[in-house]
Amino acid sequence: MSHKTVSRISQSQRSDGPSGGQWRQRNKKQWRTKSKAPEKEVEKEEQILREPVKETGPRGTCQTMCPIQELRDREAQNRLHRFEMVPGTERDRRPWGDPTRAVKEYSRPAAGKDAMKSSDLRPPEVLLKTVYYLIDFVIASPSLNPWTEVYSFAFDRLRCVKQDMIVQRLSGLECLAILERAVRFLIYASYRLCGEPLRLYDPRINDTHLQEYLSWLFDCYANGPGPYPNQEEFQALGLLYNLGSSSTLQHIMELPVRLRKAQSVTLALAINQAYLERNPVRLLRLARRLNFLQACALHRHLVMCRRDLLLIYSHGYSSRNCSFPLDRLAQLLSLDTSHTAQLCQAYGVEVDQNKVAFSKAAFTEPEQGRLLCKSYHSLVSEKQKDLGVKDIIHGFTY
Fold first, then answer.
1. Helix, strand or coil for residue 324?
2. Which residues are within 8 A (CB) of 336 and not within 5 positions of it... i.e. 6 or more apart?
3. What is the arrangement of strands in the sheet containing 355-357, beginning at the earlier edge strand?
4. What pLDDT, in 10s, does the model give residues 143-179?
């Protein structure tokens, strides 16, 4: 059966199962229901932070990563994180805080709170130094484990960095450098921690903050003098992460021609077009050209993309006397044959002796929790190769 025939059948048979948009909308609604409280809390905090207090924000004078008074208070209250303790005192009744490792902790903003004191706010150069410390000595540390705890600590401290930036109404090159590294960190975390229990990693919270960082970053690009050497990278990452978003696509189309025609943005646009056309074969083929971090941004869409491919082929090749080579299907899905067979079985597609028997009647949606995205990460993981976490988040891979 020709590719055109499969395409034509897939278009006419979409009504047999939930469309990609319907499926995404339904699951997005379920996800929002489960995580509504944390998301509202984040929105409320950000809204308080953005309330105008003065025409210009206060200027920080704190020259350490953590204000001295806060370090003393948390030390006295036993509220130090183990990553902030003086080595060797972790098991003491009251561990000591290490001024070279302690980082200002995030606290919920409130109207009229003393968080506006200059002595508690870190100026731009100290904030950037803090972010470099978090990346080089915490996030990329080979000795700090588990990485879920590393993420939780870094996420909280980066959130406090953002808080100091907002209060001071920061802009400029330091602000851009911080935002770019925060975006890379959250995109990388969304891939690395995919499938972890919600108590250790909440993808919805991660997504909420990532979208905020992206929005702020793009505002800086749009309103600053430029040119910005990393703008092409982040425009492509934003589109790959938000495939199918009309507002993101509109934002890209309003960019200067120089950016729209840049190689990485052009590739991201092609992948987005394949996504909108529901052409998973082309999307997965184009995805092989992405670098590691771009693949991390795309990875959350891969489960749905592969599901669409199996649904289309279940209709296009549905025949008792027709079989499809397993190795060819594995190539199309960008998986090895064993994971391809597992994926087929999850969707009710029969596999026997390296042959796949597609049937539109047999195709079923897997039970909740049975299909683990992390089991099918090979398209992304193979791109990492020898890249270190520090290089990925600092952007030394380009």
1. strand
2. 330, 378
3. 324-325, 355-357, 350-352
4. 999 999 999 999 999 999 999 999 999 988 999 999 9
pLDDT at position 27, please? 37
Cβ neighbours of residue 276 closer than 8 Å, sequence gap 6 or more? 244
How many Å separate Cα 46 from the centre of its chain? 19
CB neighbours (10 Å) of residue 234? 23
3-state SS class at 149:
helix
Residues of the chain by 3-state class (helix, strand, coil), percent to 5: 60, 5, 35
Report the distance separating Cα 358 and Cα 216, nearest Å: 46
Can you give the length of the chain in residues? Answer: 398
Per the structure block, which two tokens stand in for 320?
């008792």
Q: Is 320 helix (H, G, I), strand (E, B) or coil?
A: coil
Paired tokens of 227: 């040119």
Residue type for position 88 = G
Q: Which CATH class is domain 300-381?
A: mainly alpha
- pLDDT per residue as tens digits for the range 341-373: 999 999 999 999 899 999 999 999 988 767 888
Q: What is the pTM of this model?
A: 0.86
Question: CA-to-CA distance for 134 and 154, rounded, in angstroms?
Answer: 6
Confidence of residue 111 (pLDDT cuts 50, 70, 90): low
Q: Please name the helix (run of DSSP H) or strand (run of DSSP E) that holds residue 351, with its range, or none.
A: strand 350-352
